[in-house]
Amino acid sequence: IRDVERSRGLGDVYKRQANGSYDPRNIAKLLFALESGNEMATASRFIPGGLRHDRMKRFSYRSLGNRIFTMLANILFYGNLTDTLCRFRAIKTKCLQSITLEYKDLTFLYFLSIQAIRQGWNVREIPTQEAIDISPTQLRKTWRSVWPMLSLLIRTWFKRGENRPNKGTKIESE
């Protein structure tokens, strides 16, 4: 299964991991959110009905970094997202075309979330449940993303005058 796929006839893109960590039935909810007028739809593990856990129960505080980065983006750019790093999301092609795609992995997802806040996109969050097996490789990759995301946050904060804080980004939870 490809990592990024085009939805049928909509010209929109959805992204998910093909490792069984997310429920594929939620794809329809994400695409419906786009059809309903939202520019981006993202699954959230931190709203009611959402869940995030390590199947092996080895890392109790696994979500701490995500919550801190999400909180910083919300405070600095006047947002109201609950999960800025979830890989399970859908986005309108016109929104992707409006930004520079210069990042990868978690930093790219963080960049998308910050841009959604800054540019005032209508965002819908749907609850999702993620169950994963964390490998040492994944853990290292996650730790290596901390500095690029922090750097992105700082650079974007200093560029905030270029795109003034949004005028009421509509962020809905299901």
Descriptive report:
The two termini are 27 Å apart. Residues 1-10 have low confidence and may be disordered. This protein has helices at residues 26-35, 64-77, 93-97, 105-118, 136-144, 146-158; strands at residues 4-6, 12-15, 40-44, 51-54, 89-92, 123-127, 129-132, 171-173. The protein is built from six helices and eight strands, in the order E-E-H-E-E-H-E-H-H-E-E-H-H-E. By secondary structure, the protein is of the alpha/beta class. The strands form two sheets. A six-stranded mixed beta sheet has the order 1-2-5-3-6-8. A two-stranded parallel ribbon has the order 4-7. The longest helix has 14 residues, at 64-77.
Give the helix proportion (percent range): 25-40%
Taking pLDDT < 50 over at least 5 consecutive residues as the criterion, the unreliable ranges are: 1-10
Count of strand segments: 8
Largest sheet: 6 strands, mixed
Structural class: alpha/beta
**Helix/strand order:** EEHEEHEHHEEHHE
Please report which band the strand proportion falls in: under 5%, 5-15%, 15-25%, 25-35%, 35-45% or over 45%: 15-25%
Separation of the first and last Cα atoms: 27 Å
User: What topology, given as strand order, has the largest sheet?
Assistant: 1-2-5-3-6-8
In one word, what is the shape? globular
Number of helices in the DSSP assignment: 6
pLDDT averaged over residues: 78
Query: How large is the radius of gyration?
Result: 15 Å
